[in-house]
Amino acid sequence: METLKNCRVCGKPVAVSAGACPHCGAKDPSLPSGTRAIIGGAAVFVVVLLSALLFVFVVKSCGLLPD
Question: Residue 4 pairs with which residues in a beta bridge?
């Protein structure tokens, strides 16, 4: 038997693995509303960090920065 949680939008029971609530159509209904923001913020942080590291690597390899 699959685990059920209440939808964060309509409050009706939804399978934890469901991608959308079958009652109201909310996406990721079992995730708390702040979880998506945290995941998105972490993804943006990782992209910015990797971009900065790539920039420093390219600038150093071109000899524009002292060692």
Answer: 15
Q: Among candidates 42, 18, 41, which has minimal Cα distance to 29? A: 18
Structure tokens at 57: 């690597």
Q: Is residue 18 part of a domain?
A: yes
Q: Which is more confidently placed, 37 or 24? A: 24
In a domain, 66, yes or no: no
Mean pLDDT, to the nearest integer, of 19-24? 90
Return d(Cα 20, Cα 29) in angstroms, integer.
6
Mean pLDDT of the chain: 85
Instruction: Look at residue 4 and give its three-state secondary structure.
Output: strand
- The domain of 14 spans 4-61
